[in-house]
Amino acid sequence: MQNTVTPTHCPYCALQCGMNLTPAPDGTGVEVSERADFPVNRGALCGKGRTAPAVLSSAVRLTSPLVRSEGGALVPASWEEALDRVAEGLGRIRARYGADAVGVFGGGGLTNEKAYSLGKFARVVLGTSQIDYNGRFCMSSAAAAGARAFGLDRGLPFPLEDIPRTGCVILVGSNPVETMPPFLRYVTELKQNGGTLIVVDPRRTRTAEQADLHLAPRPGTDLALALGMLHLVVAEGRTDEAYVRERTIGWEETRAAAMAHWPEHVERITGVSVPALREAVRMFCEPEAAMVLTARGPEQQAKGTDTVGAWINLCLATGRAGRPLSGYGCLTGQGNGQGGREHGQKADQLPGYRKLTDPAARAHVAGVWGVDPDTLPGPGRSAYELLDALGADVRALLLMGSNPVVSAPRAAHVEERIRSLDFLAVCDVVLSETAALADVVLPVTQWAEETGTTTNLEGRVLLRRRALDPPEGVRSDLEVLHGLAARLGGGRNPGKGFPTDPEEVFEELRRASAGGPADYSGITYRRLAEENGVFWPCPADGPPAAGSGPRPAYAADAEDAADPADAEDAEDAALDALPDDPARADDHDAGAGVHPGTPRLFLDRFATGDGRARFVSVSYRAAAEEPDDEYPVLLTTGRVVAQYQSGAQTRRVDELNAAAPGPFVELHPRLAERLGAAEGDPVAVVSRRGRAVAPARITTAIRPDTVFMPFHWPGEGRANTLTNPALDPVSRMPEFKACAVRLEAVRP
Ligand SMILES: Nc1nc2c(c(=O)[nH]1)N[C@H]1C(S)=C(S)[C@@H](COP(=O)(O)OP(=O)(O)OC[C@H]3O[C@@H](n4cnc5c(=O)[nH]c(N)nc54)[C@H](O)[C@@H]3O)O[C@H]1N2
Ligand SMILES: Nc1nc2c(c(=O)[nH]1)N[C@H]1C(S)=C(S)[C@@H](COP(=O)(O)OP(=O)(O)OC[C@H]3O[C@@H](n4cnc5c(=O)[nH]c(N)nc54)[C@H](O)[C@@H]3O)O[C@H]1N2
Ligand code: SF4
Ligand SMILES: [Mo]
């Protein structure tokens, strides 16, 4: 145990709030105290962050490996035995059925070092293409749409500190009062500065209560809403013609598609009135600058990529992207939701946000890994498709950082697939519902017990520091991968290439990412400690030309920019308008050859070959499952402030359970009356996938045609028993946010 203050970051969401850890006075564990120097949260924390040390306690966590005994129970075992069993289990299946019969499932909460090592382990040691992760269930539609339009996906292309200085923010399907409470500060400051807030959510959430205008569309209809707004932009002559001409491609087709979506038609689809739609367009278009921020509401749809694309089109048509204090951004969710999608645990990806299908990327990464590029497998299945293939094509699974028995769509089916595996190994800090099904459970260290980097929702790479010793009996995920590589890798130097020291892994990640879209090569642990984080891209080869400030380091692209002189003028003006950036530390004078990092992307050009953004023409289509006579109500799902994700961690914290003890079904009084249900009565929600039961929570804050359930709990009230695994064709995101259900009264 160190006895000084350790500045670090929260283990949970993508804000990655700064916090200080100090040794607890009674000598057991650590306490959280305020860390005011981190700009994102300036000391503020939500209840989850404040109580995070409770999950470090041995009382709630795993401190010994567990193996499945002959009798079927999980019993304690030594690390040697447990690792031998995992290596034997994975190796046996690989030998018998081939490498692609072994799957790997990762998580967006894993540090960059872990995500990187996991992807490398799958491709180099197991030789399998079958790796994906829970980020597929999170922001993958926004990532796909961002990459399609801008040539690059970074959740926010600007720091959070820009938000209060813009003119209008549209928050689409985002409820930060529950999901990122310290974010509220930015909204409050926006309003103090005279800016306005529009919230698009089928529920009048606590976030919507802050809005100047709340639009409450039917779940699954955001695409129509955005198209209707674009229609009005054109009809009212609010298009930024010069911007569209100079900085975009593809407007004509997009314009034509929008013109086919009449506001009256949009009103019928969405339930949002034409006057409200007009008011939203006015509020968004009148100020100098404006932003659209999406979260899971519009993204977790079987058309999430097109839906986010439609919101991006609205930004492009009005000149609100790649300009100071304007832009489209996605509020990424998990602690390392950003970095977790950049370094190779995704089915189609290599480190540095490179494509697995790109021969140059394969050659570069294979070079760093010391293997022949031809030995790297191709892209594998997406997360749901991988889970759906378990027990059939994929017979063994190594799982790290996710709890799909609770969090995957059509969860009863997924649970049954997991049970049908020949072999399952789970690394976790607690005995999650998924770990409880494993053949071997490996207990691992967590945030405060290990050092590592995460990349927050702004693209700011951060250093989490070890603040206390882990309990005896646990090892880090990196040690697990090292131990398995040593057993499975073969060769003369087994385990080589899987260091257990996070900084050593990061040094290799720097090289692997060098020259890629998410270039970390200029970032070191030392810089992260000194600078409170560094925004990627941050190449190693020194700063951009003097005076050009932070600019995207697309070295190869930069040469064919349309007109570099114009671009630089525009950028200088743009930079003058921006607040000082704390991340641009003065102590790195330009001569030192240190790249300052890139807080703001796209100000002079987008990351496409020609520097222009792409309009992608989209049209409205209905949810994969619309209400009918048998299933007449729409179910949507989401979160409450006191529980996190599958609840594996937060359901083990008394204070959080007291605040949010269990699942519920939020429904409108009219629906409750028809059902004959009073507040607190058990209600059954039935979909084509299954049936869940939870107490009624009756409120006029939800549309009468919609019910809402949070997804944090297993068992009878598990929301994901009901959800529809219909996938977006591009991002392979399941439709968590809209499916058809019927309600039944439950007689006690
Ligand atoms: N307390 C808490 N905080 C968290 C998490 C957590 O589990 N608990 N998880 C973290 C993670 S990984 C993520 S991804 C983020 C998620 O953060 P958010 O996206 O803010 O969370 P959700 O509650 O999933 O969805 C947001 C809102 O979308 C609305 N919605 C539902 N259907 C639709 C629709 O069709 N259209 C629109 N426009 N809105 C719709 C819901 O009513 C909900 O209020 O939160 C992060 N922070
Ligand atoms: N119906 C519905 N379902 C949803 C969503 C929704 O809105 N509605 N949202 C989706 C979204 S956005 C997400 S992100 C997913 C998240 O759902 P999950 O992927 O289940 O996420 P967590 O519950 O955070 O699971 C993380 C697990 O890893 C463990 N863990 C924590 N830290 C570490 C570590 O360092 N190493 C290892 N090995 N394990 C660790 C935790 O104890 C926990 O068991 O849920 C998705 N499911
Ligand atoms: S808002 Fe997110 S990062 Fe901040 S304390 Fe809460 S869970 Fe942690
Ligand atoms: Mo997420």
UniProtKB/TrEMBL annotation:
Region annotation (Disordered) ranges: 539-599
Gene3D superfamilies, sorted: 2.40.40.20, 3.40.50.740, ADC-like domains, Dimethylsulfoxide Reductase, domain 2
GO biological process: respiratory electron transport chain
Feature: compositional bias, Basic and acidic residues: 581-590
UniProt-recorded Gene Ontology molecular function terms: 4 iron, 4 sulfur cluster binding; metal ion binding; molybdopterin cofactor binding; NADH dehydrogenase activity
Protein name, UniProt field: Nitrite reductase
A GO cellular component annotation in the UniProt record: membrane
Pfam families (UniProt xref): Molybdop_Fe4S4, Molybdopterin, Molydop_binding
Source species of the chain: Streptomyces toyocaensis
Domain of life: Bacteria
